[in-house]
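Late entry, written up from scratch paper. The run itself happened at the end of the previous shift, but nothing got recorded in the book at the time, so transcribing now.
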Amino acid sequence: MSYSEKSTDWAAFDRRHLWHPYSAIDSGLPVFPVESARGVRLTLADGRELIDGMSSWWSAIHGYNHPRLNLAVRTQLEKMSHVMFGGLTHQPAVDLARRLIELTPEPLQTVFFADSGSVSVEVAMKMAIQYWHAQGEPGRSRFLTIRSGYHGDTFNAMSVTDPDNGMHSIFAGILAKQHFAPAPQSRFGALCSEADVEAFASKLESVETELAAVILEPVVQGAGGMRFYSADFLRAVRSLCDRHGLLLILDEIATGFGRTGRLFACEHAGIAPDIMCVGKALTGGYLTLAATLTTAEVSKVIGSGDPGLFMHGPTFMANPLACATALASIELLLESPWEAAVRRIESGLEAGLAPCRAMAHVADVRVLGAIGVVELRQPVDMREIQVQLVDAGVWVRPFGRLVYLMPPYIIDDTDLGQLTSAVAGVVGGMARASAR
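Output as recorded:
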């Protein structure tokens, strides 16, 4: 049998041989073959078109097959797709770093390019540890965060993800032991309660001498529960870090590049971190790339101490193809009316998901920027709900008790209405099915 003949049964091969995220080989969970993608639509192998409500896990903010990004890829490809970054440099990396420094909070002045969001978190944590090691305090190697967070799937990133309600509890015995404060209960748009700040401050003070840094997802906690918390809490944490001389790491991987209505979510609080991670939407969903930015002071301290250099260096660091595409994606975003687009999406999500608030099996409906969340009282059955959503003509990937939307910024009102209507219909049907 030829390769081409074998490839006609590629979906069946997939079921038997390929791992998918958070899945098992031949798990029985539905997997839908995609033939192409354009704009906000995915075309399946059977000809059905789905409105994408996920932006391919929050990354494809301009939709798919965008001519401007396609051109950036082709142009760079003709020059070089990759060259090692050790001892060499290239203009796409330099231009992208310059743009990131211009756009992120002013104290951030140096850039380390990484392969993925999880790796950028690893880099940030290693930077914080080396910062204290260089100052003769190697005992400062732990991190403080809040519960309900998610920072990635690599080992250091897992260690600062919620230890009880997160996805990594089976690794608890071998992960580095970090410190967790209660998640703030004050919701976005409200002032932070004294109880939220006091709980965090008390935990910080009890473990201060062990800490290399505090690490948080600003304002929006992503895969740990899609919670939106008070920007006032973030300001209070920045003040506490300043008072105690601690570094603050902000994980903007999910929130960066406009998703919450500000270019970076920390802008809601008017604060700057000492270290920031960005990824996901950085390349507009075209290629994997992330970055860790830090201050000139942190960089100087790391470089001046033993061993005099930062101990990390991925093979594909600053890949030229990815850097060129990221720069084109950022320029495309900034030249567009993205703020108005996010406000329009926010209004559409509010209106379209509002019917879910009256459903007894729905615990909460919340919207911030281009993020809409329907939180159920019980976990969804992925074998059923995924098929129902696809049958309704939309691509949405629920998890746990959450059915959430993060559509591309280019989605129009008609498609957004169809997307939210499908979600409300499927969620409503869950109650009717359980009542039978």
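Residues 69-335 form a domain with the Aspartate Aminotransferase; domain 2 fold (CATH 3.40.640.10).
(Scratch paper discarded after transcription.)
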